[in-house]
Amino acid sequence: MQALAQFAEAFIGVFQQGGETFMGLVTGIVPMLVVLMTAVNALITLIGPEKVDRVGEIAGRPGIGYYPVRYIILPFLAVFFLTNPMAYTLGRFLPERYKPAFYDAAVSYVHPPLGLFPHINPGELFVWAGIAAGITQLGLGLGDLAIRYALVGLVVIFIRGIVTERITAVLIGRQATSTTAAQAAD
Known about the structure:
The protein is mostly helical and 186 residues long. It is built from seven helices and no strands.
């Protein structure tokens, strides 16, 4: 009988812990995200949606010359100003075919600049702190590492954006081909 009572207590304990975790989110990150989303939407309204759309339009132009705008500048600005996880919403101003690549670039840049800009992703600051502890034990400076880490991150997001854009184009082409074939069969 005592084992059954202990099982019941443990069972309800799981839900109590889940409730505590949920309340932590409700009183922590959720209000911050709501306020941040409200502020960003207000800023877009003040600037003018057409001007913000224009930045997305410029970044969304086809051609190799727009790759740096789309996969370096836009993700950097998104991550720096909007931080993680709000940064990904800036992709909404891009054409659909570029959104997966923008997301890949932005999500790949939330860690590299932490040594210079810890506000970008404070929940993951422990990653940088672990690296920094090792570098400090070796007697090396953190400034050079932080700058190199951020710059290498820019190179990586540029490459990832281009590769993901190519993969997306192939998948869109395949989907269009199979859709055309299915329509022809009907």
